[in-house]
Amino acid sequence: xxxxxxxxxxxxxxxxxxxxxxxRVAKSCLECLASRHDExxxxxxxxxxxxxxxxFKPHFAYPRSKAPSGLNELADRIASADGFVMISxxxxxxxSPALANLLNHFGxxxxxxxxxxxxxxxxxxxxxMRAAIGMRTxxxxxxxxxxxxxxxxxxxxxxxxxxxxxxxxxxxxxWFNYFGRTFKQLFWxxxxxxxxxxxxxxxKVVRDFTRDPSERNAP
Length: 219
What we know:
There is one protein chain. This protein is α/β, with parallel strands linked by helices. It has one domain (2-216): Rossmann fold (3-Layer(aba) Sandwich), CATH 3.40.50.360. It has helices spanning 21-36, 71-80, 97-104, 108-111, 129-142, 172-199, 202-205, and strands spanning 2-7, 41-46, 83-88, 116-121, 151-153. Strands 2-1-3-4-5 form a 5-stranded parallel beta sheet, with helices on both faces. Helix 1 (21-36) crosses helix 6 (172-199).
């Protein structure tokens, strides 16, 4: 199966220090997936690689030939994925606005009927868990329902180095075991959802909302 790992931060400066703390968490997640679950494919989607216009216009509102650079390619990657790992810092007890902005550019029909896993981190003691609570609602509305197990990394700068490896004195196996509980749930649901999608096309059972918000209206 194929999974996209979304890194939802574009902060690349100091303070705070170290910069791009989330990149360490993302690299560690990718290493765990590669070393323990190499039967699956995992690819990074870094929000920093998608500079978007300040005036919001979703991908599906453009003619495909005129969509901003990279969005068509990312839409295709989302559509072909079996599930998602969503990595976010916590800003003001909420998920990263950069991650929300990137995801909001795509219709929920691309994400729907596939599972997701929530990974949050912080430089402090809570590990982004308050952002994770809000992410459950956000991801459910996108249609990629999050699995029950979540990953929280408090004081991430004291856990992983710049390449995602555990720092000296950190039990890397214990961290990968912790990650694995969430990832195994993700794999189980992705396999179950994929098998059923192959039998019954959900987009034919439930009509997708594609253009007009009035499609959501009650009679």
